[in-house]
């Protein structure tokens, strides 16, 4: 991992001048990631600190051993510092070993955090936390070794603390079970007694940390002008619109009611059938024979039977007849697919089909019929359609809904 | 230790430890007896209602996979069974469990028999009456439509009366106690009592318009805020604090170990009850609730981690040096898992209160999984542990089969895992599917596709629930056999010095500052009340007084009489248990359901119906989305319109006739609550209702559907077609879009 480290570091160092260039107006082709630089620097400092302290421990331990030998101390005094040494200089070795374990594919995760590949970010974070933990432990050992050197009597010798005591008791700062009588309170409730253990430090400081975090949170969102949920929404929509525009620009010509052509590809028609079942079958029946909505298999059409008319009806809907506009839910391509699929249903004459509604439509017939069917769909006014297009919200949120619902507005509605 | 032989030792009359050295000089001890009979009654009720509540839950869970299990009958649809399940589990299973534990421990901690046997009996039978009345009315469709507060006004009043009886009996006992200081368990009992009283009274404010129906005193956003202040703190003060009290008594008892840290008890008790109250708004994140209230919900939830964990730590660390017993003793096993589950769900809770996480979990099964870690793990297992501990002691015998209890433990634990894990997956999956877009910017999945994908997980969850239920049956059999083996000691003799003859042994030097209030139950009550009242007041006053919190939308008008009638049917059928009416400002929700919801849109909603779960799609802008005939067919047979839907059919709506006679009373009630119907409109309402219904009838007839205009389905269609349309009218009229 150290090599990964150095790799990150070298990247950061290499990029630093570029960043400086960018600020002075040069072309910012490789953006510098401040978070990355920051994290790498912290980790570097930690590693350095760990190494320094490891050396300090090594030397101190030697000195203590020397001193104890002179004083003819017990075996524990010899063994323990050696053990400590092993434990707290161990991370140095571990880090170098981990580097080999880090497979290259780890670094190519697509979803980044703060512009840093996910795994790399988490790894760095873990590294920093580990570094901090080791640093604290090392500091503890150094302190105890110094105390031993100076013959300061310690309340709780660290050796005892680490090896003779329950690690949980150390962590929670509790008095051990064996010595609990020393902190037994004179409380006795139906035989239940109470100890007077101190608050676990991690609990106490964790509590304080949550309080500080809360104050900062409130400050950020309500004093220093952090974004509210509507701002967040607007940003999300804007980004999505950009991505969509970019995609459409790349994917070429847009299909609309003027350019749509019949799709005959079997695979696409099969996909279209799924779409039909999900979105259309509810009202038009699974076989297109019509239930709430009209029969789509006969020769009669209310809003025109040509492919273009069908496309248009699906896209913009016919509000006052209850046909939703599918503009927002289905893509143009999908609408073309569904329109084509519907056209393939013609003449299938499914059982239980609804009686014909609308005007006779003959495929490939003269334009008169086509124009006639257009006239029967007066709700598809240009205003209605353009407003609908500009409306980023859902498919049913037609701007002409009031007009469309005119009939549906209950007579008893209050003014 | 924990075996009955040894426990009979602890059950011997014993004196207050503090009083022992003074005994000879201050005269004879009082002789009295603990009332065990009331404890046994509550224990039976706990086990019985536990089984009933879990059966209702299992039925509701299975209905999500097999909709035909709603049996085409009103009383057995999900919308009514689910409230029965939640109410039965919370107020019957857990409620009786609380009383069982309190009546056992309070007497012993106070060294006094309950203040009045008569009040104990009134409390017991009153509470069972409430439960039966709740089950009957909920199945009959009488509901306020506010989660966990569904019971209608007469039962609300009964609850208040019985709660006062409980408090009276409890304080009577505390005041005549023979123990100078109140143990931490009693602090929690007092905090529980005063807070639940406050929550219940404030949230149940409603105006009756008939013998069994009422409208909420609050509307829309304010109703939502009050309701989730209640709902969240029902979890806090009905499912958590009393159980912490029970834990503080039964866990050290069962483990025979001293409580780990008195200091921790003090800090975590006060910080817990103070902070909990504020956290309610985290149930309404990204909803049409003012941002400041949402942020308060978030930060107070985050600050709750440590106080909540204080309880877990004090529980688990009390077991230091007793883990060998945990291996042997089923009671302790149950308690360890209970406390661990408590720790897990109280860590998960604050995480779910972070807005980014909540955006995922809200409205999905993640929430259901989360609450069941608490309900099955914490409440259920602690109840089981206490039952296994109590019954052999009161019946002076050994547990019939320790092996069976161990089997119960493992089956139950497995049940929890099988219940929660599939729901975590289902929740994440629903969020993931519903929030995905195609590169062309359209939604990738239909709502129904997500429903279909979740069905196998719903099935797995039912199996988890079934396992848990089997465990509960094992326990009932085991306890039944134990009871048959033993003989109940209804009145357990005890003795102690009366308080006035006990000398206050002042410890030289420092006494912990908190000992002062432990000698003063009334001050404890008052301070608890002050501490829990603060959060609610600070959140409610601005939400009700500051107009900017609910920006007016001029086109939002009161419901017409027919729509109001339809809304009452919507509430009656529990539609809110599966459908939300709250579109959050997310790209996918706006694309799927329409413009995000505004606070100003629900100002006439009494009760609010924002919902908390989307088993079905959001309905906030359902109006005008489909033709009337679609709704007609869909309510009659949902799968005919939505292939693969798991919604049950509602055939009775097509048979039942609207009760027009109640309409004037409804209108008058709404007018009293401030809904601006014109003067004397109650007389006009029935006529308007008939007219609007005739219009719908006509439109249905055009689609060859013939139905009488006075059927309930017509009113429901009117309401559904109105939903969310007001704001569109404003936009069509050229009004500025809302900020």
Question: Could you characterize the architecture of this molecule?
Answer:
The complex is a heterodimer of chains A (415) and B (739). In chain A, helix 9 (266-279) crosses helix 12. Chain A folds into 3 domains: 2-164; 211-251; 266-404, Cytochrome c-like domain (Cytochrome Bc1 Complex, Chain D, domain 2), CATH 1.10.760. Helices cover 58% and strands 4% of the residues of chain A. Mean pLDDT of chain A is 71; it is low at 16-30, 90-109 and 366-415. With 415 residues, chain A is mainly α. In chain A, the strands form 3 sheets. Chain A has a two-stranded antiparallel ribbon with strand order 1-2. Chain A is elongated and about 110 Å long. Chain B has helices at 4-11, 37-65, 78-110, 117-140, 153-175, 184-203, 220-255, 262-276, 291-303, 305-318, 323-328, 330-352, 355-361, 365-394, 402-434, 447-485, 515-518, 521-545, 561-572, 587-593, 628-636, 638-641, 663-672, 681-702, 712-722, 726-732, and strands at 30-35, 206-208, 214-216, 491-496. With 739 residues, chain B is mainly α. Chain B contains 26 helices and 4 strands. In chain B, the strands form 2 sheets. Chain B has a two-stranded antiparallel sheet. A two-stranded antiparallel sheet of chain B has the order 2-3.
In short:
With 415 residues, chain A is mainly α. Chain A has helices at residues 2-23, 34-71, 75-101, 118-149, 158-164, 167-172, 201-222, 229-251, 266-279, 281-284, 307-316, 332-344, 367-375, 382-390, 401-404, and strands spanning 112-113, 116-117, 184-189, 192-195, 300-301, 359-360.
């Amino acid at each position: 991992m150290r090599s990964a480290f150095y790799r990150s570091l070298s990247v950061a160092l290499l990029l630093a001048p570029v960043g400086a260039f960018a600020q002075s107006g040069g072309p910012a082709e490789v953006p510098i990631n401040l978070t990355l630089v920051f994290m790498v620097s912290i980790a570097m400092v930690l590693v350095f600190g760990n190494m320094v302290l490891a050396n300090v421990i090594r030397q101190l331990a030697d000195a203590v051993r020397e001193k104890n030998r002179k004083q003819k101390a017990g075996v524990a005094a010899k063994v323990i510092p050696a053990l400590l040494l092993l434990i707290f200089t161990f991370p140095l070795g571990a880090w170098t070993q981990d580097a080999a374990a880090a497979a290259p594919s780890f670094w190519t995760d697509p979803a980044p955090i703060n512009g840093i590949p996910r795994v790399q970010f988490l790894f760095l974070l873990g590294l920093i936390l580990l570094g901090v933990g080791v640093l604290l432990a090392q500091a503890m050992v150094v302190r105890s070794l110094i105390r031993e050197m100076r013959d300061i009597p310690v309340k709780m010798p660290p050796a005892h603390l680490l090896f003779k005591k329950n690690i949980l008791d150390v962590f929670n700062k509790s008095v051990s079970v064996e010595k609990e009588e020393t902190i037994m309170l004179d409380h006795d409730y139906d035989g239940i007694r109470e100890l007077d253990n101190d608050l676990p430090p991690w609990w106490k400081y964790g509590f304080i940390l949550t309080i500080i975090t809360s104050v900062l949170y409130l400050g950020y969102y309500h004093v220093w002008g952090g974004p509210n949920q509507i701002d967040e929404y607007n940003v999300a929509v804007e980004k999505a619109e950009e991505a969509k525009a970019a995609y459409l620009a790349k994917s070429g010509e847009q299909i609309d009611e003027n350019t749509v052509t019949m799709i005959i590809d079997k695979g696409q028609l099969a996909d279209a059938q799924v779409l039909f079942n999900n979105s259309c079958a509810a009202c038009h029946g699974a076989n297109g024979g019509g239930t709430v909505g009209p029969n789509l298999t006969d020769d009669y059409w209310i809003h025109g039977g040509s492919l273009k008319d069908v496309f248009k009806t699906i896209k913009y809907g016919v509000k006052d007849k209850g046909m939703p506009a599918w503009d927002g839910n289905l893509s143009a391509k999908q609408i073309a697919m569904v329109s084509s699929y519907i056209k393939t249903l013609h003449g299938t004459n499914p059982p239980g089909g609804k009686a014909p509604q609308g005007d006779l439509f003959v495929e490939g017939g003269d334009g008169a019929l086509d124009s006639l069917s257009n006239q029967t769909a007066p709700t598809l006014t240009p205003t209605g359609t353009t407003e609908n297009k500009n409306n980023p919200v859902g498919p049913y949120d037609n701007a002409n809904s009031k007009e469309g619902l005119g009939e549906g507005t209950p007579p008893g509605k209050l003014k | 230790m924990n075996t009955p032989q040894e426990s009979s030792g602890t059950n011997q009359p014993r004196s207050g430890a503090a009083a022992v050295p003074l005994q000879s000089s201050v005269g004879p001890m009082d002789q009295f007896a603990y009332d065990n009979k009331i404890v046994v009654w509550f224990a039976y009720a706990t086990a019985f209602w536990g089984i009933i509540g879990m059966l209702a839950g299992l039925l509701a869970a299975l209905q999500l996979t097999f909709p035909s299990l709603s049996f085409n009958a009103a009383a057995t649809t999900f919308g009514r069974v689910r409230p029965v399940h939640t109410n039965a589990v919370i107020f019957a299973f857990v409620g009786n469990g609380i009383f069982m534990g309190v009546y056992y421990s309070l007497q012993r901690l106070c060294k006094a028999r309950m203040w009045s046997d008569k009040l104990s009996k009134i409390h017991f039978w009153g509470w069972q009456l409430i439960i039966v009345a709740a089950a009957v009315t909920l199945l009959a469709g009488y509901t306020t439509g506010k989660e966990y507060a569904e019971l209608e006004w007469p039962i609300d009043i009964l609850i208040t009366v019985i709660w006062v009886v409980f408090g009276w009996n409890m304080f009577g006992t505390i005041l005549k106690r023979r123990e100078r200081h109140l143990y931490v368990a009693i602090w929690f009992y007092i905090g529980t009592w005063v807070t639940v009283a406050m929550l219940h009274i404030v949230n149940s404010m409603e105006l009756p318009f008939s013998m069994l129906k009422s409208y909420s005193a609050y509307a829309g956003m304010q109703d939502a805020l009050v309701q989730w202040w209640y709902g969240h703190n029902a979890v806090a003060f009905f499912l958590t604090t009393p159980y912490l009290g029970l834990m503080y008594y039964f866990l050290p008892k069962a483990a025979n170990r001293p409580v780990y840290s008195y200091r921790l008890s003090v800090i975590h008790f006060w910080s817990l009850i103070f902070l909990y109250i504020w956290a309610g708004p985290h149930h309404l994140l990204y909803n049409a609730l003012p941002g400041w209230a949402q942020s308060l919900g978030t930060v107070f939830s985050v600050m709750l981690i440590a106080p909540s964990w204080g309880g877990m730590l004090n529980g688990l660390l009390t077991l230091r040096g007793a883990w060998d017993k945990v291996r042997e003793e089923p009671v302790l096993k149950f308690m360890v898992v209970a406390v661990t589950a408590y720790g897990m769900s109280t860590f998960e809770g604050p995480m779910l209160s972070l807005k980014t996480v909540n955006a995922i979990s809200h409205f999905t099964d993640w929430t259901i999984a989360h609450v069941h870690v608490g309900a099955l793990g914490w409440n259920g297992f602690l109840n089981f542990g206490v039952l296994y501990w109590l019954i052999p002691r009161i019946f002076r015998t050994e547990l019939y089969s320790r092996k069976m209890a161990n089997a119960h433990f493992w089956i139950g634990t497995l049940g929890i895992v099988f219940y929660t894990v599939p729901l975590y997956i289902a929740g994440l999956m629903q969020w993931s599917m519903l929030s995905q877009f195609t590169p062309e910017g359209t939604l990738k999945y239909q709502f129904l596709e997500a429903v279909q994908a979740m069905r196998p997980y719903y099935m797995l969850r039912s199996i988890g629930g079934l396992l848990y239920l089997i465990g509960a049956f094992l326990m009932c059999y085991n306890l039944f056999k134990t009871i048959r083996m033993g003989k109940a000691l209804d009145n357990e003799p005890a003795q102690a010095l009366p308080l006035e003859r006990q000398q206050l042994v002042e410890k030289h030097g420092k006494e912990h500052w908190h000992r002062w209030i432990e000698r003063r139950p009334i001050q404890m009550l008052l301070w608890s009340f002050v501490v829990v009242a603060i959060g609610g007041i600070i959140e409610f006053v601005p939400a009700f007084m500051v107009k900017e919190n609910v920006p007016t939308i001029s086109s939002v008008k009161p419901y017409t009489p027919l729509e109001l009638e339809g809304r009452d049917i919507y509430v009656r059928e529990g539609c809110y248990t599966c459908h939300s009416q709250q579109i959050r400002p997310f790209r996918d929700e706006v694309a799927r359901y329409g413009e995000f919801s505004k606070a100003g849109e629900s100002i006439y909603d009494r009760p609010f119906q924002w919902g908390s779960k989307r088993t079905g799609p959001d309905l906030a802008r359902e109006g005008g989305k489909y033709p009337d005939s679609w709704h007609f067919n869909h309510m009659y047979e949902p799968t005919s319109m939505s292939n693969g839907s798991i919604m049950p059919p509602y055939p009775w709506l097509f048979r039942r006739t609207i009760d027009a006679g109640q309409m004037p009373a409804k209108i008058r009630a709404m007018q009293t609550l401030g809904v601006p119907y014109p003067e004397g409109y109650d007389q006009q309402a029935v006529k308007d209702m008939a007219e609007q219904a005739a219009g719908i009838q006509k439109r249905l007839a055009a689609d060859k559907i013939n139905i009488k205009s006075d059927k309930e389905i017509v009113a429901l269609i009117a309401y559904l077609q109105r939903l969310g349309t007001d704001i569109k009218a404003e936009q069509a009229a050229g009004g500025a879009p809302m900020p």
